[in-house]
Amino acid sequence: MKAVGLYRYLPIDHPEALIDVEIDKPQPTGRDLLVKIEAISVNPVDYKVRSPKDTVEPAPRVLGWDAAGIVEAVGPDVTLFKAGDPVFYAGSITRPGANSEYHLVDERIVGRKPASLDFAQAAALPLTAITAWEALFDRLRVSPQGADAGKSVLIVGGAGGVGSIGIQLAKQLAKLTVIATASRPESAKWARELGADHIVDHFGDIPAQLKEAGFAEVDYVLIFNDTDRHFPAAAQAIRAQGGICTIVENDKPIAVDLLKTKSAAFHWEFMFTRSMFGTPDMIEQHKLLTEVARLVDAGALRTTVGKNLGAINAENVRRAHQMLEEGRAIGKLVLSGF
């Protein structure tokens, strides 16, 4: 079957950074679904895994952790899906990725595709929706039923993939006042269209801009871009006993002592944790995606596609990686069909 993979970990401008390959079609066992891939989207995790290093793979390594497609076959222990079901999911970082014609995924981290979306629109949602949902509702423990209505959240990186769905969850479900960061007119416009009440420039003095907008402090901070740069501002802006959650790994030590006098909480969110460790609650991601699909079909949430780059092939996937590395993408980058 066709796939996009790599043997060497190279800069994205190298023609062999990602290549078109032929690999064997896998077969489902246990609770696995064999999914015929119709569309994928690309995330920062893809280029971070692909980043240059000395390792050489003996067989093509396939990346890609966002997909939508049709169940082709199921393992003997599957109970949630059957052949022919349209699905969407993010997969597991410990297994081969979805940049291939067929892909294996555990049913417990899969949801039925929203009926109102095509496959490309659906492929834009899983990884970012799971990340934003878990960060806001599981880590910071904001109520998805609106019990915290009126509280404020600062979303750093509002026009990115996670920010694009995070704004919607915070506004539509939690009923929070949303302050999102954006540095360009087009990204600010995008964030406002998704529901942001206020925009601040993440290249400027964030606490000063918050005060100018009427926020001496905020109840929650979601860091979806550059933890090293933005944590000090988040620590300054967070209210006493508030909470900060980041999804971006740090390169330098994080000065969590800045939070001591405020008794403020600091959380990590990594959406692959459940599948990576096989946690007993893995099925919560199936439930989460099921709820996201329901909300999309009800009109409460919208897809976050920023640009469709065309067919799934090495050239187009390389282009997506490059756009993400350069920080030029608004919303999600999707590809559809081999």
TrEMBL record:
Q: Where in the cell is it found?
A: Cytoplasm
Q: How does it assemble?
A: Homotetramer.
Q: Cite the InterPro entries for this sequence.
A: ADH-like_N (IPR013154), ADH_Zn_typ-1 (IPR014182), ER (IPR020843), GroES-like_sf (IPR011032), NAD(P)-bd_dom_sf (IPR036291), Quin_OxRdtase/zeta-crystal_CS (IPR002364), Zinc-ADH_QOR/CCCR (IPR051603)
List the SUPFAM superfamilies hit by this protein, alphabetically: GroES-like, NAD(P)-binding Rossmann-fold domains
What GO annotations for molecular function exist for this entry?
oxidoreductase activity; RNA binding; zinc ion binding
Q: Which UniProt keywords apply?
A: Cytoplasm, Metal-binding, NADP, Oxidoreductase, RNA-binding, Zinc
SMART domains attached here?
PKS_ER (SM00829)
Residues covered by the Enoyl reductase (ER) domain:
13-335
Quote a single Gene Ontology cellular component term. Answer: cytoplasm
Task: Report the main location listed first in the record.
Answer: cytoplasm
Protein name in UniProt: Zinc-type alcohol dehydrogenase-like protein
Q: State the family named in the UniProt similarity comment for this chain.
A: Belongs to the zinc-containing alcohol dehydrogenase family. Quinone oxidoreductase subfamily.
* UniProt KW NADP keyword: yes
